[in-house]
Amino acid sequence: MRFRTIYGVFLLLVSVSLVMASSFGQAGSFLRFGASARSLAMGGAYSVVANNGEALLYNPAGLGNLEKWELTITHAQLYLDSRYEFVSFAYPVQKIGNFGLAIADMGASQFDGRDKFNRVTGDFGIHDLAVIAGYGRWVWGRRMRVGGSLKYWMSSVGDSSASGFGGVDVGIVSKELMRKFKVSLAIQNIAALDVGGDKLPMTIRAGVGYRAMRPLYITADVEMAGKGMKPRVGAEYKFGKIITLRAGYNFTEVTFGLGLALDRLASSFKGMGRPILDYGGAAMNPAGNDFVRFSLTFRGAERYKLSDLMSQTDPCANLTQYEGMLDKDGLIGAKANLLFGDCYFRSEYRDAPLSANPNFKDAYDYFREGYISKFGKNWTQEIMATEGSNLVFSQRTHYMFAEAAMQTKGITEDTKKLIQDLIFVGGDSAQYDIRLEYDLAYTYENLGYLDSAKAIYGKIAGREDLERPIRPIAMYRLAYLLRESDPDSAVKLLDNLVRNFSWGFYDENKEIISYPMFPKYKDNIIADDALLLMGDIYSAKGGPDNLKKAVLAYLDIMMFYPDAEKHILLSAYENCAAAYESLGMNDEASAMRTRMENL
Questions:
Q1: How many angstroms separate the Cα of 552 from the Cα of each of 477, 530, 534, 549?
Q2: Residue 80 has what DSSP assignment?
Q3: How buried is 527 (Cβ within 10 angstroms: 0-12 exposed, 13-18 middle, 19+ buried)?
Q4: Is the peptide bond before 60 cis (omega within 30 degrees of 0)?
C-alpha cells in the first residue's frame, strides 16, 4: 500500500508538471543547461543523483554524500558555434562536511555587429559565466543531507558587461526511503541581485529517484521559476561494472548517453584518478539544435577502509553512505553488497508482517554480487584464498544467500549446488552451520533425495543441545517424511515437539526469533502444525483408540491455538468431524462442521 501511494505521488508529480510545462526564457538560463554529460543524458532529472561538484547546479545537499575528491570537466559544442564548459571540484573533510567549487561558462562568438543604421561594426560575442561555491553534509543521524551554496554571475554582450551576486541556494536530500526511494528539494537564487538589468529568478527544484531494480534507477525532477514549470524524467541502467546506458526526456527534447569506467577497461587508468568518461546527446529538439556533450571525471582514493565497514553497529540505518562502495572490487565491494543484502533480507523476515510472503529478490541480487560477481566463476576457492575473507563472509551471510536463492530462483539443482558450496566455504563460526544444513535438507526433500533429507533432519533432531527453532522444525520435517513408512516414530517426534516447543518462535522478551524461511510459519508457531500432522497420522492408522487420539490432537489445536493460520484451523475442524463420523458420533461431527462454517 505504501509503495502504491508513493508511486501515485510520483506519477502525479510528472503528470501535473507536463500540463504546466512552459518555456524558460529567463535570465541565467545557461545554468539550467546542466553540469555533465551524465546529467544531460538523464534529461536533467538529476537532483537526487548528483553527489559531487555537479550538485552545485542542482541541489547543494548532494555534496553530503561525497566519499572522495572528484574533478569533473565537461565540454559541449552547441548550436550556432556556441559552446558550454563546466568544471567542478569537490573535496570531503572528515567530521566537518564536504566542500565544492564549480564554474559554468557558456558563450558564442562571431556574430555580425551592426549599428542603428545597419552598418557593419565588426564581430561580437555573448558570454555568461557563473562561479559557485558550496557545502553539504549528513545531519539528523544520517537521515538526510543538507547543503548551501553562493553564486557569482558575470554576463557580457560585446563590449558591455555586468556582474554581481547570483544568490544563495539551499537544499535537502533524503536517505533511501523503503530502500527504494529518495526525494530532494532545493530553493535556488535566493536574494539574487540585479546584474545588468537582469536577475536570476528564484527557483524551486523538487526531485524523486526510484530504484526499480539493482541496475536500473529512474528519476524525475520538476523545476519551477516564476510562473513557469519544467518537468524532466530520466533513467540509467548499469551493464556490469564498465558500461552505463542513460536516457531521458525534458519535454523539449529526447536525451541519451553512455558512461564508461575507463579504469575497469584498462588497469593503466587506475593510477590516473580512476577516470570515468561520459557521453550525452540530445535529439528531436524543436529548433533542430541536436548536440553532444562529453565529460571526464577523476576521483581520489577510497575514503573508507574495510575496517570502517566492519565497525558499524547499525549499518541498516545508514545504508546510503555505502552506495558508492557497491561497485568496488575485492572485500570492500563484497562487504558493502553483503550489508545491503543483510538489511534487505532482515526487512523481509523480521520487519515485515508475519502474514507477508517474503520477497528476497533484492537481497539475492546483492548477495550474488558480493559472492559470485566479485570473485568470479571459482568464487569458492577465491574467497577461501583471500586474506581477511573470514571477516567478511560468515555462515550468517551464507544462509541468507541460500534462502534468498531458494525464494527467488526456486529450489533447483543449482540451488542445491549453491548451498553445498556455501557449506564448503565455511565462515566465522559454527553458529549458523546447522541452519545451512537444514536448508540443504529441505532442498533435498523438494528435489526427491528423501534419504539424504532424512539423514540431515535426523541429525538435527537428535541434537538436544540445539536451541529452538531449527531443531523443532527439523523434527517436524522428519516426522512428515516418516508419516507413512514409520508412523510410530513420526508420532514420537511430534509428541516431543509439542511438549517442548509449544510456545512458538519467540525469546524470553517475546521478540521474534529468526528461523529458516522454508516453509514460513506465518503464525510463528509450529506446534499447531505438529498436532495436525499427529492427528492425521492417528486417523490414517484407524481403529477406535487411534481415532480418539486423533480427535484429541485436533481439539488441542482449537483450544490452545485459536489464532493459528486459517488453513490449519479449517483442516483441524474438517478432519476432526471426519474422525467423529468414523467413531459413529454424528452429532459431534455435525456440530464441528457448523463451527467450521462460522470461522
A1: 22, 13, 10, 5
A2: G
A3: buried
A4: no
Judging by DSSP bridges, how do beta strands 243-249 and 181-190 pair with one another? Answer: unpaired
List pLDDT tens digits, range 337-373. Answer: 999 999 999 888 877 787 888 889 989 999 999 999 8
N-to-C CA span, the chain: 27
Q: Is residue 303 within 8 Å of residue 67, measured between CB atoms?
A: yes
Q: Which pLDDT belongs to residue 263?
A: 78
Which pLDDT belongs to residue 9? Answer: 38
What separation in angstroms does the CA of 69 have from each of 34, 51, 100, 257, 297?
A: 20, 11, 9, 24, 10
Cα dihedral value 86, 91, 92, 96, nearest 10: -100
Local confidence band at 517 (pLDDT 50, 70, 90 cut-offs)? confident
User: Burial of 415 by CB count in 10 Å (0-12 exposed, 13-18 middle, 19+ buried)?
Assistant: buried
C-alpha cell at 283: 535529439
Task: Residue 419: count other Cβ atoms within 10 Å of its Cβ.
Answer: 26
Show the cell assigned to 22: 512552459
Between CA 113 and CA 100 the distance in angstroms is 39
> Residue 219: its pLDDT value, please?
97
Check pLDDT > 60 for residue 20: no
In degrees and rounded to multiples of 5, residue 319 shows phi and psi of -60, -35
Average pLDDT over residues 381-409: 91
d(CA 229, CA 350): 43
**CA proximity to 43, closest of 73, 18, 9, 79:** 18
How confident is residue 441, by pLDDT bands cut at 50, 70 and 90? Answer: very high
The cell numbers describing 481, all together, are 517424511
Residue 112: pLDDT over 90: no
How much of the chain exceeds pLDDT 70, in percent? Answer: 88
Question: Please, which residues have CB within 8 angstroms of residue 584's CB and are 6 or more apart in sequence?
Answer: none
Residues 6+ apart with CB under 8 A from 416: 440, 443, 444, 447
SS3 540: helix
Sorted by where each starts, the structural domains of the chain and their CATH numbers stand as 2-299 (2.40.160.60), 308-428 (no CATH), 432-525 (1.25.40), 542-597 (no CATH)
The predicted pLDDT at position 510 comes to 75
Q: How confident is the model at residue 114 (pLDDT cuts 50, 70, 90)?
A: low
The C-alpha cell at 441 is: 535438507
What is the distance, to the nearest Å, from the Cα of residue 19 to the centroid of all Cα atoms in its chain?
31
Q: What share of the chain is helix, strand, coil (3-state, %, to 5)?
A: 45, 30, 30
Residue 170's nearest CA partner among 142, 140, 146 is 146
